[in-house]
Amino acid sequence: MFTINPFAELSASIPPGVMQPYLVVMAVLVAAGTLFDIVHKGSAKYFFTNWRMSKKKAKAVGGGELVSIALKTGVVDVLASGEFCNARRRVAHLLTMYGFILHVVSTVVMVFNPSADAMWAHLWWIGGLMVLVGGYWFWFFIRVDVAAEGNSRFRVMHADLFVLSLLASVTLGLLWAWLGGMVLFGLYILATTVLFGSVPWSKFAHMFFKPAAAFEKRVSEANGTNQNLPTLSRDDPEQQARHSMELLRGAPTDMGLGIKREAPRHY
How many CA atoms lie within 13 A of 95 on its CB side? Predict the structure, then answer.
């Protein structure tokens, strides 16, 4: 089972000339949906406007430093998901991210090359199982509204569209490859179409412009234009002086930290 290309077996019922254009259409939907999302929300406009304004008051950053920042962004923020301080959430995110990449790439290879090496079937299954482990772990145990706020694990909101359609697509795909049947295949295609066709209304597009935002943040920190946000804690005299509560301006730095008796379990 783990060495068989399920899409090659499918060719007995559905010719490859149907699945291949379907994948092309899904890729077009992702590209178009991402562009629509960026334009509709003004993300690109905000990014480039902020970049252009910050350059007027920025100190010079050399080409070597820019290369170093780009490498750090790629390794820390993209490949290692350094934005997550919570170790469990980072592991779940990495499992889902790399599993999704393996699953999608191996799907494309096996659809366009039905005689592909059995290695691709292995990668398809491994990637799918990684998505299920990371995705269901996040959904049932790590989500903030479940782990920290006590809401039901079965509470669904609009923001959950991406993760739910992803889990539905991969779950139904693996069940179809294991059990067979055109009903499961039809449900698999339906869930996959929702996943790739709902980009403008889900968090799918985040994976494309979050690296750019992470790079811009690192550059703004390097050139001193990070919007003058406070970056130091209250033990710094300058931060004490600008505190909104007069009582805390000269107070001990550990005053009011009772909330830290219980370590946060989210973010």
Answer: 19
What are the phi and psi torsion angles at 218 (to 5°)?
-65, -40
pTM here?
0.76
Residue pointed to by tokens 């291949």: 20
* Percentage of the chain modeled with pLDDT above 90: 36
Q: Which of 208, 216, 250, 232 is nearest to 30 (CA)?
A: 208
Query: Sorting pLDDT into bands at 50, 70 and 90, what band is 179?
Result: very high
- Show me where the domains of the chain are located: 6-229, 232-267
> Distance between CA 1 and CA 87 in Å, rounded?
34
- The mean pLDDT of the chain is 81
